[in-house]
Amino acid sequence: MMRLPYFRFHAPRTVREAAELLAAAAPGESMLIAGGTDLLPNMKRRQQVPATLVGLRRVDEIRHVANGDGLTIGAGVTLTDLVRDGRVRETYGALWQAAAQVATPHLRNMGTLGGNLCLDTRCNYYDQNYEWRKSIDFCMKKDGRICWVATSSPKCLAVSSTDTAPALLALGARITLVSADATRQISLSDLYRNDGIHYLTRQPNEILTAVHVPRLDGWRSVYWKLRRRGAFDFPVLSVAAAAKMAADGTVEAVRIVLGAVSSRPVEAPEAAAGLIGQRLTDEAIVQAAERAAHPARPMDNTDFQLVWRKRVTKDFVTYALRELRGDDVRERRRSVSRMLL
Prior knowledge:
- The chain has helices at residues 15-24, 39-44, 79-84, 86-91, 93-100, 105-110, 113-117, 130-135, 164-170, 269-273, 282-293, 306-325, 330-337; strands at 8-10, 30-33, 52-55, 65-68, 70-74, 174-178, 183-187, 207-214, 219-226, 237-245, 251-259, 266-267.
- The protein is α+β, with helices and mostly antiparallel strands.
- The strands form 3 sheets. It has a 5-stranded antiparallel sheet, covered by helices on one side. Strands 9-10-11-12 form a 4-stranded antiparallel sheet, with helices on both faces. Strands 1-3-2 form a 3-stranded parallel sheet, covered by helices on one side.
- The protein is globular and about 60 Å long.
């Protein structure tokens, strides 16, 4: 049985109190915990061993969804509550579909939007118990010097496996970060680095408190996920797409984002640019899918063969764009995503 290491626990009731606890801690000593669905298993495997946890479950101010010029979603909102929110399902389809496909109902009941956005990167050589990792002299991401995915790589190649980040990037979301000294708002895209170890730009003393999704009149968005099983598994490939279509069916604006192919979500601006001013014809979709596959750089650090994962990127972009066009893709989603939404 894997047991948690000893740690101190604080349960603040306000963001301010939580931020002050982080500010008072020594570097690397404290970590935030919301649902704990990612952090606690990591602690059992000794991948992350904070001396102190600052819990956010009692901080009510980050557990609400508010209307405005778009939608402001507290980072403490659970994935289950997000899926049950009619405003999300009707207006921000990609986010709704992404949240609905995270793990299992039990984990969605505990997991939060902020936690999913800050999800630790994953790798076959990293996500093992302590004894297994010790037997290979650990890896670059934790306690070792070598990235076993590519032994000559100067950086860790662990992969981003968050479901909600690609969807929110396609929707043009921004986030709020709060520390004891300041509050700042940045594009969600600026939260991520292409580095398996230092994958977030969020500082250790900052708390992600809210996600701001702009008003998107006339937009449609979708999310597709590849995994071995129809539940529980992390994505080994995901595609989020959002588009605004004119009355005649031509594309006025579009965003395509790939997940689980790099250490951060990967945008495909060339593929999107090629669709502007065009209808989503079969030919246009095939060309866009070809372009979107170019920036995908899957490595041999997760499920399925990397060559196959690279190849099916085009297929999943095709499915997403066909759904945006209005095609009935329910049977295709059942067969490849193993789930009906």
